[in-house]
Amino acid sequence: AEDGTAPYTCASPDLAEQVTAAAGKPGGVPKLVRKYSTYNLLAIDEWLVDKPDEPFKRLLLELMELRYDTASTAFATQLATKEWHRQLGGDTIADAILDRIVHNTIWINTGEYNMRQRHGQTMLDN
Question: In terms of domain of life, where is this protein from (predicted)?
């Protein structure tokens, strides 16, 4: 459900494309921020697989600010957390985005576990 009661999953590259598309429409980016701020759980897959551009970083900052202490956000990534700041551009906006993530987080590190590889092998074994 898109009323915020169900979890919502999106891939970071897809979200970045939505930001680019929304930027060309009046009120497009604020509408996108409102949409993603309403979910009780927002799961962002492929987090920081690509280096975000400035409009995407601004959306992330606003989104993390709105979700802070009100909703849960899960980040699925193969990028080590120590690399997040650099991948976000290493600037003041990167500081602000991470400030809203790292100080209110429960970390679950799966180590070298690869869900796709594991499920792919299970499918091959059956």
Answer: Bacteria
